């Protein structure tokens, strides 16, 4: 079973369909929130997977996904990048007064919305925005979502590629339960580089202590692909760091060397990077 | 003139009042969005200031503020931390079906809202949420905001401290126009450590290249207080970094040494850290 952010027609669905082919499981169930996806994976068995957005090329990290990766006993099993083409969906462009969309979509189309002087309302997903516009049959409402979502509800595609920046890509990750009888062996993908993710809390919680961590990676010639800080939620100015790197041969040695500098470390696994053209 | 995110009763107002005493300017004008604050500062003269939230101890950076600090020709002149005590504001707790608030407040009270199974609607600020609940006179609506905002509109404070984590603090920054006849001299504050902020784009755009930057800080014994990455908005996996550090005596030397490793650097100035108890 694959749980993904719904309803049908979301960008997450596109990612879920790719992962569905890889893990050979056609059962996709739609959840109301990213939180619910994590909950279902935690409550399910080892054959339960979740698909959530982790990062967008314009808006950056999806903070909720980052926080839940720390909170729930899950690991990352794979990732895939999906091109985002935001469309304006509704009845008639001239009559629109308010735009409904997920907060990230609203942020990604900020200049476009500002130009038209429309009000905005955040909803839990873009496809939910389309559903709402359809359900309410109100010509003053418009939604931001994929062309697919607009067609699903028989609404008009009033404009395409309305995002402020042209290269808009969202990375989706496949998550699974973190348990002893590992579930990532079934779909190893030898062609691609594997990528690992760790979450660390530095001793003394000083951002400067990050230098020691990066020194270890540099000494071992390991490529970092992403460093992100998130608040530790204890006090302002205290952070935890999310680090993505190309999985080295002797990963255990790396993790052990980092332990000298961290008070906490969570290893989220080594995952496969999948192409969207399978 | 001080521009701050309105309407009256917002947490930003509290910060603006503190800055107002420091720069001895009592004219506070309320803007509809963070974007508008930056615009007004850019369009105004050297005596125009802006107050915007930059970071919260739970939710992390305010992405829009980060992006606009890069986009607009401004510098950071000061910062102050404000304790956040989110209250539930409305008519009667039992009748509430939907909560209005700024997306960050909704995120900070996620567990509380989930427990009550309320719907949510994002609005541009918490005080605007209170104003909406007041204007619509609808008992099914509630707002999240400060006690002050609730009292301003004569609504009931139905619950206090409803945020999921106890230590909820927001850092606000005072921004000014970046121009030759510097406007930060008038209120130097010799008692406190000064803090500088730079935004850098690493050569080759590789997160691993961050190691060279941290090495320079380490060599010069300069304390880093924050490192944040934001997407460069050109392609996924390409980042720019925001670095805060205690301003060293020879800052010019530091900046010059960093230039070997960066393709772009924006210096946002050295600013004063103000206490809220002035």
From TrEMBL, chains A, B:
One of its GO terms (molecular function) is prephenate dehydratase activity. GO terms for cellular component: cytoplasm. Pathway: Amino-acid biosynthesis; L-phenylalanine biosynthesis; phenylpyruvate from prephenate: step 1/1. It comes from the Archaea. GO terms for biological process: L-phenylalanine biosynthetic process. It catalyses: prephenate + H(+) = 3-phenylpyruvate + CO2 + H2O. It is an enzyme of class 4 (lyase). Residues 198-270 form the ACT domain. Residues 1-177 form the Prephenate dehydratase domain. Keywords: Amino-acid biosynthesis, Aromatic amino acid biosynthesis, Lyase, Phenylalanine biosynthesis. InterPro entries: ACT-like_dom_sf, ACT_dom, Preph_deHydtase, Preph_deHydtase_CS. Its EC number is 4.2.1.51. This is prephenate dehydratase. It comes from Methanococcus aeolicus (strain ATCC BAA-1280 / DSM 17508 / OCM 812 / Nankai-3).
């Amino acid at each position: 079973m694959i749980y993904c952010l719904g309803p049908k027609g979301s960008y997450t669905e596109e990612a879920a369909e790719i992962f569905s082919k890889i893990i050979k499981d056609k059962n996709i169930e739609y959840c109301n929130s990213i939180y619910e996806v994590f909950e279902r994976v935690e409550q399910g068995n080892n054959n339960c997977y979740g698909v959530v957005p982790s990062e967008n090329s314009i808006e950056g990290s999806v903070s909720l996904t980052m926080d839940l990766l720390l909170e729930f006993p899950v690991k990352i099993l794979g990732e895939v990048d999906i091109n985002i083409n935001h469309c304006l969906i509704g009845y008639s462009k001239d009559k629109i007064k308010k735009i409904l969309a997920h907060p990230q979509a609203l942020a990604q189309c900020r200049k476009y919305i500002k130009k038209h002087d429309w009000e905005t309302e955040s909803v839990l997903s873009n496809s939910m925005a389309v559903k709402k516009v359809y359900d309410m049959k109100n010509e003053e409402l418009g939604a931001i979502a994929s062309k697919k979502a607009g067609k699903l509800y028989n609404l008009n595609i009033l404009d395409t590629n309305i995002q402020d920046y042209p290269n808009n890509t969202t990375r989706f990750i496949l998550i699974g339960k973190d348990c002893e009888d590992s579930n990532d062996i079934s779909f190893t993908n030898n062609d691609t580089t594997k990528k690992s993710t760790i979450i660390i809390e530095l001793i003394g919680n000083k951002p400067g202590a990050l230098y020691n961590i990066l020194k270890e990676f540099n000494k071992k010639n390991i490529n970092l692909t992403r460093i992100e800080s998130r608040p530790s939620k204890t006090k302002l100015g205290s952070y935890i760091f999310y680090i993505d790197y190309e999985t080295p041969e002797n990963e255990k040695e790396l993790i052990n060397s980092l332990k000298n500098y961290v008070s906490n470390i969570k290893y989220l696994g080594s995952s496969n990077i999948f192409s969207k053209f399978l």
